[in-house]
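REQUEST FORM: STRUCTURE PREDICTION
Request ID: SP-0412
Submitted by: Lab K.M.
Chain count: 1
Length (residues): 123
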Amino acid sequence: VQLQASGGGLVQAGGSLRLSCAASGRTFSSYVRGWFRQAPGKEREFVSAITRSGGSTYYADSVKGRFAISRDNAKNTVYLQMNSLKPEDTAVYYCGAQRYSGSYVEARLYDYWGQGTQVTVSS
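STATUS: Completed
RESULT:
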């Protein structure tokens, strides 16, 4: 079972990036999918999550209105569209998957993780 995150890179403030997280080894249509990020010297923090059907989405206050999560269960893939990027968005972004355990924002409840993709936003 593997989650492969991609799409990170270097972008100027105000720019956009689209992250992808492709899953292989099993079907994740019954799993909640989420994105977290970790900046140097900081703990991993919740960014966004999407329910199994994609009918509900959740965002950290710091990214609300700028980021959009979506999923394509046929492709076993989740996306994170990031617009109006700020230098404080700089971090390694990780995708995760969990059978819903009562919380979307706690990293410890996620069963599977991707390897992370670096996002760097220059001012």
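NOTES: The chain is about 0% helix and 50% strand.
Reviewed by: T.R.
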